[in-house]
Design a protein that fits this description.
Length: about 375
């Protein structure tokens, strides 16, 4: 029998530069205390009964492939958003759809411009495509610097991502500044407006992204059912884009990627939006309460328009997260930068506010 070769399998060199995605860790148990995970921007509410019933019904046929065309959900979205069904492309969460957007626009060596810090999956999906990330620092208020992003566009730029509200820092872009930015973007460059947290925004100046997409053939809107709709575990997101882009996205999508459970749950969630909106408004009220309490303590908290808030702790980010973990609260530290805190159950939020006050008193 021939001995196996000691030579390692040849992998792509780019993998050595790709950062690993860091998921929110489960809370560490502390005796006598309920542990809470507020590190992953999850919706703390369980599925609505009607949504759970749709999932249960779908479970009986998991031996069959799902509808590859995601027909019922696509038609429901088209009616809800008042866009052609041919302008919608779905995928296994909005991050997968973003990956496909990069796949259909970028060749190795092309550039993708986005704010930083922003969603940590961006540099991963860009690098794996062979493209190059161009990261433009957020400004002193943790907002997108759209003028600097426009200046960063070169002849190699193929795609620009605008994350609004920005994950993890919180602020949303304004409609006037976004339209002014788009006027500077070459028409052949695709601009992706990532609205994963759209439903939590309360700022009246935020853009109507669908109106902007209608006005600009080079704009795509990216959304998800993971956050406001509470379907993070089922992985379903979508893009609204002009037909040429949407058709290419459907070509690039993983066949049968969106499961039947996810499709039916998403349709049921659209039907139950009135009930879900009550939950969203409760989370927004809780977010505003927590932010106000932190600012009263003396924290500088950037504008929060998602279901989370940002503490720009710099080098104290990891020690602060460890202090939270010691009290059975898991938050999301970004070493050397800050900590993102999801709005969760009231008890979790109360304990976090208490930890934050103790931290300031100890400094």
């Amino acid at each position: 029998m021939t001995e196996p070769s000691a030579r390692p399998v040849r992998l792509r060199p780019v993998l050595s530069t790709v950062p690993a995605y860091t998921p929110g860790k489960p809370p560490t148990p502390v005796e006598g205390v309920t542990a809470y995970k507020i590190s992953s921007n999850e919706n703390p509410y369980p599925p609505l009964p009607s949504v759970l019933a749709a999932i249960t019904d779908a479970a009986a046929t998991v031996n069959r492939y799902p509808d590859m065309g995601v027909t019922t959900l696509t038609e429901a979205l088209a009616e809800r958003l008042d866009v052609p069904a041919t302008h919608i492309a779905t995928g296994t969460g909005s991050v997968a759809v973003l990956g496909h957007l990069i796949d259909i626009t970028c060749e190795p060596g092309d550039e993708v411009v986005y704010a930083w810090r922003s969603f940590e999956a961006y540099p991963i999906v860009v690098a794996l495509s062979g493209a190059t990330s161009v990261q433009v620092p957020v400004d002193a208020q943790a907002r997108h610097d759209l003028d600097a992003m426009a200046a960063a566009i070169t002849e190699r730029t193929r795609l620009v991502i605008v994350c609004t509200p920005n994950n993890p820092t919180g602020p949303a872009v304004r409609e006037d500044e976004l339209r002014a930015f788009l006027a500077k973007v070459p028409p052949e460059v695709l601009v992706v407006i990532d609205e994963a947290y759209l439903e939590f925004t309360t700022d009246e100046t935020v853009p109507d992204a669908l109106a902007i997409y209608r006005d600009h053939p080079n704009v795509a809107v990216l959304r998800t059912f993971s956050k406001a709709y509470g379907l993070a575990g089922l992985r379903v997101g979508y893009a609204v884009a002009h037909e040429e882009v949407a058709t290419a996205l459907r070509k690039a999508a993983t066949p049968f990627g969106v499961t039947d459970l996810a499709q039916r749950a998403a349709v049921a969630s659209l039907d139950a939006w009135d009930e879900l909106e009550v939950r969203v408004k409760e989370l927004v009220t809780e977010r505003e309460r927590v932010v106000a309490a932190l600012r009263e303590q003396g924290w500088e908290v950037p504008e929060a328009q998602g279901n989370f808030l940002w503490l720009p702790l710099g080098e104290d980010a990891v020690p602060f997260a460890q202090a939270c973990q010691a009290r059975a609260i898991t938050v999301r530290p970004f070493a050397g930068d800050g900590v993102r805190v999801s709005i969760g159950e009231t008890e979790a939020n109360e304990r976090f506010v208490s930890i934050a006050a103790e931290w300031l008193r100890s400094r």
